[in-house]
Design a protein that fits this description.
disordered N terminus; four-stranded mixed β-sheet
């Protein structure tokens, strides 16, 4: 019973950090705040547990946007919700705002700040040493149709206006 309460409290704290980190980065890029979707959380949690059981990093076959994070440590380590999101956001260094578009080197970053995405779910699975984090997003980002990256991946410094559309300043 104590373990279940501890794990539940840990997941709630992780989820809050995960959402807060997303929204802090999104605000920098003129994207509106995300909300937690509990159905996405259940899906992401099931996928994270599956990944831990097979110890392989691979995407699910869902119609959601999806970011995956994997960490291993020989010592037991508590991962924060911020660490996974920060690792995805760090891909900004490779994103070319002058030539917007999809790249496997920046797809995690672009999903984090994708303006049209409204909801996120998170799953965390760990055995104490190996940890998998799954973020699932609705609507999905990284749509490669013409103009979508220009509209959804805005430079840092873009402000969120009252209609949830970005304006550059």
């Amino acid at each position: 019973m104590i373990t279940v309460v501890y794990v539940t409290a840990m997941l709630i704290s992780f989820e809050a950090e995960f959402l807060q980190s997303h929204n802090a980065y999104r605000k920098q890029h003129g994207a509106p705040a995300l909300t937690i979707n509990k159905n996405l959380c259940r899906s992401a949690q099931a996928w994270a547990e599956h990944l831990l059981s097979i110890t392989t990093l691979k995407h699910s076959n869902k119609d959601y946007g999806e970011n995956l994070y994997y960490a291993w440590s020989s010592a037991t380590k508590k991962l924060t919700g911020h660490e996974a999101v920060e690792s995805w956001y760090s891909e900004i260094k490779d994103y070319n705002f002058g030539r917007p578009g999809f790249s496997s080197k920046t797809g995690h970053f672009t999903q984090v700040v994708w303006k049209d995405t409204k909801e996120v779910g998170v799953g965390l699975a760990t055995d104490g040493n190996t940890t998998f984090v799954v973020g699932q997003y609705l609507p999905a980002g990284n749509i490669t149709n013409a103009g979508y990256f220009e509209k959804n991946v805005l430079p840092a410094g873009t402000k969120v206006d009252s209609k949830s559309t970005g304006t550059s300043e």
